[in-house]
Amino acid sequence: MTSVETRGEVPYRLLGGTGVHVSMIGLGGFHIGQESVTEQESARLIRTAIDRGINFMDNSWDYHDGGSEIRMGKALQDGYREKAFLMTKIDGRTRQEATKQINESLQRLQTDHIDLLQHHEVIRFEDPDRIFEKGGAMEAVLEAKKAGKVRFIGFTGHKDPHVHLYMLQVAAEQGFHFDSVQMPVNVMDAHFRSFTQPVVPEAVKQGIGILGMKSMGAGVILKSKTATPIECLQFAMNLPTSVVITGITNDRDLNQAIEAAKTFRPMSESELAALLSKTKEAAAHGEYELFKTSTHHDSTAKHPEWLGGESPHVQQLAPTG
């Protein structure tokens, strides 16, 4: 995907069919809420990133029990909110739970609207059905959009590409079109349970903005010694991604992310083949993509109450005794 403009030091791309321009690198919300980063330091990093041209801010209702949203909300005061494209995610699967989480996110982020709200961790085949059923989370999200609290709607997941495809299928059956889809995009993905092979072309076909994440697999991919951080980021940028979201906990991370965006050039087929051949052996069994092969990244698996319990019709039909 080609850039449409440059702001500060960072090239911008179109977010799918929304007509909105977003920085091709995004600041990850999880990392700025970590205990190893002070609140003052996280605020400085967020503001410095925006000052240097990164406008895409990632977050989630559940990151550090809301701590990431609280920190970002404080950092986006004093005129920074207007410069940011703010995204957050909710885990609720029922209308009631989703409504509660949306309102909590707005309060923590100290804003009257979220630019992009995404259904988080769509990692089970029942998730799309729960989200779109009567009384499901999509009702709350559409209600929030109608009220001006949400501009665009998307979903995320990291476990299985077939769940992503099913989410798109269920949405199509309901006559709904997503503005964005977030997925793992990295140098190992092509070799194991790949998102980039089936999901990316479908998203492109439907004009859905692609948000890349896990470009370094939370740092685990780097331990394989098969690719450098810049190679990981630029591989993700080489795909038709609107934004590549990356964790930033210090100036080195920030400089690295901006450098990758500034120096990015489309890769030739031979360059791409060489990079993928370097990672093939290490990637074969998914051991460096723990988000696919373990529950380590599945926050909703540890908190089923966030999902809002079983559907009413499931409760009615469930066997008793």
Q: How would you sum up this structure, described in words?
A:
With 321 residues, this protein is α/β, with parallel strands linked by helices. The chain has helices at 39-51, 67-75, 95-108, 126-132, 137-146, 161-173, 199-206, 229-238, 251-262, 269-283, 290-293, 299-302, 312-317, and strands spanning 5-7, 10-14, 21-23, 25-27, 56-57, 85-90, 114-119, 150-156, 180-184, 209-213, 243-246. Strands 4-5-6-7-8-9-10-11 form an 8-stranded parallel β-barrel, surrounded by 6 helices. Helix 3 links the parallel strand 6 and strand 7 (114-119). Helix 1 (39-51) crosses helix 2 and helix 3 (95-108) crosses helix 5 (137-146). The model has no long low-confidence stretch (mean pLDDT 94).
Shape: globular
SSE string, helix = H, strand = E? EEEEHEHEHEHHEHEHEHEHHHHH
**Biggest sheet, open or closed, and with what strands and sense?**
8 strands, parallel, barrel
Average residue pLDDT: 94
Number of helices: 13
Q: How does the helix and strand content classify structurally?
A: alpha/beta
Can you give the helix content as a percent range? 25-40%
Rg is 19 Å
> Reading side by side through the largest sheet, how are the strands ordered?
4-5-6-7-8-9-10-11
- Low-pLDDT segments: none
Strand content: 15-25%
Say how many strands there are: 11
